Amino acid sequence: MFNENGDAPGRYDIFQYQINNRSTAEYKVIGHWTNQLHLTMETLQWTTGDSSLPVSVCSLPCQTGERKKVVKGVPCCWHCERCEGYHFQASEFTCEICPYEKRPGQNRTSCQPIPIIKLEWSSPWALFPVFISILGIIATTFAIVTFVRYNDTPIVRASGREMSYVLLTGIFLCYIITFPMIAAPDVVVCSFRRIFLGLGMCFSNAALLTKTNRIHRIFEQGKTAVTAPRFISPASQLVITFSLISVQLLGVLVWFSADPPHTFVDYGEQRTQDPSNARGVLKCDISDLSLICSLGYSILLMVTCTVYAIKTRGVPETFNEAKPIGFTMYTTCIIWLAFIPIFFGTAQSAERVSLPV
Predict the structure, then answer these.
(1) Is the whole-model pTM more than 0.85?
(2) DSSP letters along 250-310, please?
């Protein structure tokens, strides 16, 4: 007989090269072909030592989170490549990068939001400054209560009680600012940070500047005339002080108008190479430059006050305010010179969420 192509039907014996019981190799019939395949499966031998069929594929299936990189010219063969970094498996053959605020999941088949962190009240970085601030608030409150109780005594009146109250208010505000700096950022907290961050220093430096300016003018006028200089009364001193403070408040008002306070999540600060360690940091929208500008006016008052403190260092010993004010301003300048490089230095550290605050 012949098929439709004029060919005789094929009849074939199928052999397998096997090791027999005598440990010699020979060909053994394991099946035949007559119009279809007939195999005697139990007579087959494989290197695995059992009758199960070995895997006969060019490439094994890829695992979850891996893409297939097809070998050129061999469509049934591929290499498995893991989706690395912030990439996830978008399809069988492609990896795509996650959105900036997300990271790949554990199996890298999808993206999930990056956890958002902030400075917690329970953190040692928060507990220590809070403890110091509470001590400062207690001490300042004790001083204010003492002044109020003995408000009309000669020693309180001689110390310049009006300016002392302004100075104590500034010191109190410097301690209070610790709490909005640590609190979870929102619009209200960010507003308080902008207002009070430089205000406490401004109160203190304005009061000290007015004091040293008054001392300087009194002794300079005394060299050439016997009349007292103008604007040395307590009321005049308060007007001068609050005029200086109003400049800081005006600057903050302009800042509020030009750039209203708001929060944002900084995903770049802790975007590590390992996505599992990536974190977003909840922040107030206050840049380091804005922070320094906010404190810049207080720095200007501090430097000016230091100049007057140097000028009045030679006043008589009986005028006992000048030298302590001078000592205060020298140490304050040194602290500020240390603060600026430390602040910007810790902004690049591993604990950048906590240390700058």
Answers:
(1) no
(2) HHHHHHHHHS---EEEEEEEE--SSGGG-EEEEEES--HHHHHHHHHHHHHHHHHHHHHHH
**Secondary structure element (H or E) that encloses residue 38, with its range:** strand 37-39
pLDDT at 54: 77
H/E stretch holding 26 reads strand 25-34
Q: How far apart are the C-alpha atoms of 317 and 3, rounded to whole Å? A: 130
Phi first, then psi, for residue 324 (nearest 5°) are -60, -35
pLDDT per residue as tens digits for the range 192-241: 988 998 899 999 999 999 988 888 887 777 667 767 677 778 889 899 99
Instruction: Give the single-character DSSP code of 67.
Output: E
Helical H runs in the chain? 124-149, 154-158, 161-176, 178-182, 187-197, 199-224, 234-258, 288-311, 322-346
Secondary structure string (H, E, C) spanning 107-140:
CCCCEEECCEECCCCCCHHHHHHHHHHHHHHHHH
Note the pLDDT tens digit of each residue in 228-252: 677 778 889 899 999 999 999 999 9
